[in-house]
Amino acid sequence: xxxxxxxxxxxxAAPFDLxxxxxxxxxxxxxxxxxxxxxxxxxxxxxEQAAQVALLTQTIKVTLVSxxxxxxxxxxIGPADLVAPPVxxxxxxxxxxxxxxxxxxxxxxxxxxGTLGPDLVTIEYQAGFGPDETDIPLDIAEAIADxxxxxxxxxxxxDRRDAMASPHFDRIVARYRGVAV
Length: 181
Description:
This protein is an alpha+beta fold. It has helices spanning about 20-25, 35-50, 140-155, 165-175, and strands spanning about 1-10, 60-65, 70-75, 80, 85-90, 95, 100, 105-110, 120-125. Strands 1, 2, 4, 5, 6 and 9 form a 6-stranded antiparallel sheet that branches. It has a 3-stranded antiparallel sheet with strand order 3-8-7, with no helix packed on it.
């Protein structure tokens, strides 16, 4: 099975508060604003990829080529906004025979899906904590600030191991990472 995931940002806001990043790094001049903004964006994208989450509201489109004949399909990016249910097409035709189970890492379940033997399944849904940085949980905001600080401090030569990720960042990513069972 091949899985393709496309993200389309809906929110145009930054997934962090620059003033919080500056305070965390202990920089009180405007000289580092652009550099820290880039580093915070990098840290936010690293968090999204490592934890398989959408920080701000996004449309997620999942395309499954030759999916396994199973009764369930996991939504790969959380948290899913289930106010509007996911839109599913099976071999180009709309399919509404799924029931949504769970909230943060939902699964689409159907007694009928496994018997279809589809070649192509597309799932489109909304994901994210909300439209702006105030909707992002505080532990994630702190992890992004900590990772941006590591990037900022790493501008000077340091060994490769030290430049990877802050321990706090890794702990928070692990807390939110989706695990397939």
